[in-house]
Amino acid sequence: MPNSTPPVSSSKLQLRSLEAVWHPCTQMKQHEIFPLVPIVSGKGVWLYDSEGKKYLDAISSWWVNLFGHTNPYINAAICDQLEKIEHVMLAGFTHEPVVLLSERLKKIAPGNLGHCFYASDGASAIEIALKMSFHYWQLSGQSQKNNFVSLQNDYHGETLGALSVTDVAIFRETYAPLLRQCTHVPTPDWRYADKGESPEDYAIRAAAVLENHLKKNHTQTAALILEPLVQGATGMGMYHPAYLQRAKEICTRYQVHLIADEIAVGFGRTGTMFACNQANITPDFLCLSKGLSGGYLPLSVVMTTDEIFQAFYDDKTVRAFLHSHSHTGNALACRAALATLDIFEQNDVLDSNKIKTSYLNNIAAPLSIHPKVRNFRNCGMIWAFEVETNDPDFSAKCFQAGLQQQLLLRPLGKTVYFMPPYIISEQEMSWLVDGTLHALDTL
Asked: Residue 353 domain-assigned?
């Protein structure tokens, strides 16, 4: 048996991490002031650091964890799979977990999305969908359809293709010379509505701009890509399902693919299994990741239709979709995903989440009327609000204030949000709301 790792003091682990690990989305120099938090274990909604302090994981560790840390059922499934096969290349080979997962996803996905192409992360899934759409039009004799449209404030990842359809200046500006041009049409986020305009009316008005653009440019447009219902990284912008309905109608009319990026919002986050369900639409491509494996292992998938699949089905290799990832369809990750879907089926998770959503909305009343809070909003198991402040360091200070209240909060600019694991209890929801109120009052 391998030797167990001896315990390391918090300060030494922080120092070693700063010297050896380049952390993501982080200005490393800031950790001279704000120390890293060394996590050694997790259980349920709680994370435990090297000094025994615990923190409620209010953001599901970057939106991935659905059923808690070290979930016994998912743990057991992965351990069982370890005794069989951990990974085998998916080119020329296959294995039971990837077949079973694909069949189950086909059953629960909207409409006729019957073909699954796997990768390891969300940005890779976006790259796949963009390439598939572009390649489809090439194979169909419409090579001029090679441009993309996305929404203002959309975020789709930070690889070059995904970044090209992302509208977040801090990520895009440095790499602009490397990116393809993309048209960004107005967001349907109801915070942009005129005074007295309903979220639905504003969504329909935003869709009219999309229609006008595609009416003029559909012959050069391969696909519209969007985050259904909730635009995550730019501050949890929420919008009415009417936009999705109109967008699908418009894309169909003008022969433009619709790519639904449900990487963050899939698997129950918005209250339904998929956000597209609330608009009763089927996209041409459905991109999934994060909660797909319950937050355990890197895994993503692009689901698409038989029509698109058949365009690539040919005797000639050159007409195949020649894209690959070394860990495509990893057996351990697929087994974790199967266990995650089991939990959904066995525990009536979506109905249970509705009860939890109602409970948290009720107890969050003092938070929604807090003098510093603006635009308190909710969509399924996502809550968000803006904090009125002129402090440019608000995000970092709020993160630290949250830790003092035993909470993991990671604001997006001035937006504070909750995306807790679905197993959160009423007592833990009360802890979350009370701790957030105390944190706001200290800032």
From this structure: yes
Structure tokens at 373: 């809070």
pLDDT exceeds 60 at position 32: yes
Length of the chain as a residue count = 443
3-class secondary structure for 335-400? HHHHHHHHHHHHHCHHHHHHHHHHHHHHHCHHHHCCCCEEEEEEECCEEEEEECCCCCCHHHHHHH
Closest CA to 289 of 65, 106, 73: 65
Mean pLDDT across the chain: 95
Angstrom distance (rounded) from CA 310 to CA 405: 54
Report if residue 21 sits inside a domain: no
Radius of gyration of the chain (CA): 22
Of the listed ranges 5-19, 99-113, 124-138, 201-215, the least confidently predicted one is 5-19
Expressed as residue numbers, the domain containing 171 is: 76-347
What's the pLDDT tens digit per position in 134-182? 999 999 999 999 999 999 999 999 999 999 999 999 999 999 999 999 9
* CB 71 within 8 Å of CB 294: yes
- Scanning the structure block, which residue is given the tokens 């010379």? 177
Structural domain ending residue among the three candidates 300, 317, 347: 347
Specify whether 315 is located in the same domain as 170.
yes
Tokens of 35: 């120390």
Same-domain check for residues 293 and 438: no
Q: Which residues are within 8 A (CB) of 68 and not within 5 positions of it... i.e. 6 or more apart?
A: 42, 43, 44, 45, 421, 423
Residues 55 and 133 in one domain: no
Full-model pTM: 0.95
Query: At 96, which CATH number?
Result: 3.40.640.10
Residue 81: phi and psi, rounded to 5, are -65, -35
- CB atoms under 10 Å from CB of 157, counted, come to 24
- If asked whether residues 438 and 377 sit together in one domain, one would say yes
The enclosing domain of 401 has a CATH number of 3.90.1150.10
